Amino acid sequence: MGGFAWSTDGRVAVGVVAPDPEVPAVAELVSWQPESGDLRRVPCPGCAGAALTGDEVRTISSRVVHRYGVRDLVERGTMPVSLDYPADLPHWTPEEIERLFPPEVIAATEHTTVVKYSPAPGSQGGPDVAVGFGEDGRTAWRYESAGTMPFSDISVNEAKDLVAFNDGAQWGCDDSSSHPTVLDIDTGSARAIPGLPEIDPGHTGVADVWWNGDELVVLVLTARCEGESDPRVLTLGGESWQVRTADSDRAARVLPSGATLRAFADGRAVLKPADAGAPPIELGGGVYRHWTPMLAERVGLPA
Question: Per-domain residue ranges for the chain?
Answer without folding.
Answer: 1-193
